[in-house]
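Team,

Forwarding the record for the chain on the shared tracking sheet. I've put the sequence and predicted structure together so nobody has to dig through attachments.
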Amino acid sequence: MKKFLVSAVVAVAAVMVFGVVVSAQTAGEEAVAVKVTGMNVCLLGTFAPGAEAVAGMEKLNALKVTEALDAEGKAIEGMAGRVLVYVPVKAAADLISGDANAGKSVTVNGKLFKAAGALVVESFAAAAAPAAAGGDDEWDSVGTTTVTKGAVI
């Protein structure tokens, strides 16, 4: 029964996203080639922290935009701060759900339906994890002045 319910919820979500894209297309909006940089955020944690999630949808993510550039490299106005939903294409699989890229800064190349707030991912790159803070680690400053090259402490 739970599997059926999860499948039904996923199907409804896919239809909703597909409906947004179709309505944008039927309204005459064309997809624009873009390069969007932002934070991959958990929808539930961002907009309804503490709320009970539908089973299987706890880790649904979206892109909170910091910068959006068109194909010519020009900034697209009004995009900073907006939240875009990912159209469920295979290239977006690691962004749409799960913890692998949640909370990370990502750069997405794809097609944008601006009015609908939908992003078709063609490729993406996640920022590397921040490096460990230096300064307190004395290991690199340990001298090796003996014949055996052992550390002198």
